[in-house]
Design brief:
CATH class of the largest domain: Alpha Beta
Bound molecules: the ligand C=C(O[C@@H]1C=C(C(=O)O)C=C[C@H]1O)C(=O)O
Catalytic activity: chorismate = 3-[(1-carboxyvinyl)-oxy]benzoate + H2O
CATH superfamily of the largest domain: Periplasmic binding protein-like II
Family: Belongs to the MqnA/MqnD family. MqnA subfamily.
Mean pLDDT: 97
Number of domains: 2
Distance between the termini: 48 Å
Strand content: 15-25%
Organism: Pedobacter kyungheensis
Pathway: Quinol/quinone metabolism; menaquinone biosynthesis
Number of helices: 8
EC number: 4.2.1.151
Length: 246
């Protein structure tokens, strides 16, 4: 049998899912790679993998995109790993450096600046650019919130703008996947979430960062109706940004 190729995110936010896949019989039916989110998106778009933990902002670029699991990377308010870090308050930001790892959060920053803070800001993808403010996501943000004068948690700001939770990444296939496989995949992901204590026990502690709070409270993993609503709203804001540009 051909194995299903899967790209997952290499960050701590995905460790419970990986634990579930690795400790379920499905591990023998899949080829699993761990990637930064932007590479995960590229692999699903160009067909290098069948399923990926896809940054939602890039879902419109996936041919035949379909969400194959009831689990995701989400939050309801602050997530504690998706930030704008800045030397100046948000209304003084002139250029924002985007994070090369990200697809969703870079777009979320653009949406928030335009529709929440109502600010015109320039963006750079040059990772060496010296800017007052920048987007940073994932494990590289852990314990860093004390280091900057102004810290904006984008999950929290999205909730202020919309009253909704958020979905950063969803399990998306670029082809039809059998219901049997989806059922087994969902069961494995749930197994991982149900064993977060084991996952926590294996993680090295991080100073100034509460891993237990992150895995149990800040991150929320269910694809709910409100989280789907948030995804559609977010994608329509991105379309609106693109319309404004031309
Ligand atoms: C909560 C997070 O969600 C993520 C953010 C992503 C993005 O910005 O493209 C993609 C996948 C998730 O890893 C995080 O990375 O900290």
């Amino acid at each position: 049998m051909n194995k299903i190729k899967i790209s997952a995110v290499a960050y701590t936010n995905t460790k419970a899912f990986i634990y579930g896949l690795a400790n379920s019989p499905i591990i023998n039916k899949i080829d699993l790679s761990l990637d930064i989110p932007s590479d995960c998106a590229a692999k699903v778009i160009n067909g290098q993998v069948d399923i990926g933990l896809m940054p939602v902002a890039a879902i419109p670029n996936v041919p035949n995109a379909n969400i194959v699991a009831n689990y995701c990377i989400g939050s309801d308010g602050a997530v504690n790993s998706v930030f704008i870090f800045s030397k100046v308050p948000v209304n003084e930001i002139k250029i924002l450096r985007l994070d090369a790892h990200s697809r969703t959060s870079n777009n979320l920053a653009k949406v928030l600046l335009k529709f929440h803070w109502e600010k015109e800001v320039a963006f750079t993808t040059d990772q060496n650019a010296e800017t007052d403010a920048f987007v940073l996501i994932g494990d590289r943000t852990f314990g860093k919130t004390q280091d900057f004068a102004f810290v904006y948690d984008m999950g929290e700001e999205w909730k202020k703008l919309t009253g909704l939770p958020f979905m950063y990444a969803a399990w998306v296939a670029n082809k039809e996947i059998s219901q049997d496989f989806k059922d087994e995949f969902n069961a494995a992901l749930k197994f991982g979430l149900d064993h977060r204590q084991e996952v926590l026990a294996e993680l090295p502690p991080v100073s100034n960062f509460d891993l237990e709070d992150y895995l149990y409270h800040k991150l929320q993993f269910e694809v709910t109706e409100d989280r789907m609503k948030a995804m559609h709203l977010f994608l329509s804001y991105i379309e609106e940004l693109d319309r404004v540009k031309v």
